[in-house]
Design a protein that fits this description.
The complex is a heterodimer of chains A (about 240) and B (about 110).
Chain A lengths: L2 H35 L4 H10 L3 H12 L4 H12 L1 H9 L10 H6 L3 H7 L10 H30 L8 H16 L1 H21 L5 H17 L12
Helix pairs in contact in A: 1-3, 1-8, 2-8, 3-4, 7-8, 9-10, 10-11
Chain B lengths: L2 H25 L8 H22 L12 H17 L2 H19 L1
Helix pairs in contact in B: 3-4
Classes of the chains: A mainly alpha (about 240), B mainly alpha (about 110).
Chain lengths: ~240, ~110
């Protein structure tokens, strides 16, 4: 990679990553703190943020680690939570077609936020696209790593009474759900997901409801597609 | 802490995540059109999964035993109010979590 053009690429990329920096530093910090509260220190935070690099999944992963979840249910959980990434990839097929050596890393780093940036940003004149997207992806991951390592370190040093810090994860998903409920196009599917999961929670109990929920949600969504529209008016026509 | 099992869990989560991110580039190299059912699931699955995760997060709340889920209710209501008022994700998460921590450590 040409060093001179990479400096230009990094300069062009940096301001675009600032909103992601704010979000990743805070959410990453919360993740590190949560992980530390379950007895997993800085090394684990670093390992996960380098190799998984998926925000909401890493919050769920803390829970999977702490409860010693089975590998198959962890795989299914990841499949459900990160299935949306399939569609980020689809959205980037054309833009990332000729990305050369950086391509595998660009694809690896397609988080929600990074996709949000690279899907609509074009490199400024004189900056190679490959280096521009590489700089954005790398900076985003750095913010995430710095946030999570800082959170784990802080949790270790400050020895805070951390009981209840888990609520950060609840609050994160609550906010996303609220946002979904306010939008016509996601209201039906979000309500369906909540209803199916509540039903399975009542039937199967807290320790075994997740896999039945995933199956029921998939079945209900496919049925909604086949038998017309969801209550909110989405689905049937796609 | 079971270190080998924890490492295996992280490896599985990482592998599935990476597979999902790479799959489209392997399956549709020349921009082949997508099967309609996949397009549809891509639209509806993310919302449904978030609904499921919210239930998952609250799955251990015991409504029939003290404190009857009251800390969760208060913290969720507060998180929602701050979000609806300020439309700021981070501010509502930080506020809700701080209040929840105070509730479970000091009040209940």
């Amino acid at each position: 990679m040409n060093r001179k053009t990479f400096v230009a690429a990094a300069r062009a990329a940096f301001p675009h990553t600032l909103p992601v920096m704010a979000g990743y530093l805070v959410l990453g910090f919360g993740f590190g703190l949560l992980l530390q509260s379950k007895g997993y220190g800085v090394g684990w935070a670093l390992l996960m943020s380098v190799f998984i690099f998926a925000g909401s999944m890493q919050y769920v992963a803390v829970d999977l680690l702490a409860t010693g979840a089975g590998l198959i249910s962890a795989a299914l959980m990841t499949l459900m939570i990160n299935a949306r990434h399939l569609f980020y990839g689809i959205g980037m097929l054309v833009r990332y077609r000729d990305m050369g050596k950086a391509k595998p890393y660009l694809i690896f780093g397609l988080t929600d936020e990074t996709y949000g940036l690279v899907s609509h940003l074009d490199p400024p004149e004189g900056v190679p696209a490959e280096q521009f997207y590489f700089a954005i992806t790398l900076m985003d991951q750095l913010w995430w790593i710095i946030g999570s390592v800082a959170g784990a370190l802080f949790g270790q040093v400050a020895a805070l009474p951390t009981e209840g810090v888990d609520f950060a994860m609840t609050a994160l998903f609550l906010v996303i759900v609220l946002d979904n409920l306010m939008k016509q196009e996601t209201r039906g599917s979000t309500l369906a997901g909540m209803a199916c999961s509540l039903l399975c929670l009542l039937i199967f109990g807290a320790d075994g409801f997740l896999i039945p929920s995933m199956l029921l949600i998939t079945a209900v969504l496919l049925a909604a597609r086949r038998f017309g529209r969801c209550a909110s008016g989405e689905g049937g026509s796609v | 802490m079971n270190v080998p099992h924890s490492l295996a869990l992280i490896a599985v989560i990482a592998a599935v995540t990476v597979a999902l991110r790479f799959l489209p580039f392997l399956l549709f190299p020349a921009g082949k059109p997508l099967p309609p059912v996949l397009m549809y699931m891509g639209k509806v699955l993310p919302g449904a999964t978030m609904g499921m995760l919210l239930v998952y997060c609250l799955r251990n709340t015991k409504i029939t035993q003290a404190p009857h889920g009251i800390p969760e209710l208060i913290a969720c209501a507060l998180t929602a109010c701050v979000y609806l008022w300020k439309r700021n994700v981070l501010a509502s998460i930080v506020t809700g979590t701080a209040v929840y921590m105070i509730l479970v450590q000091v009040v209940f």
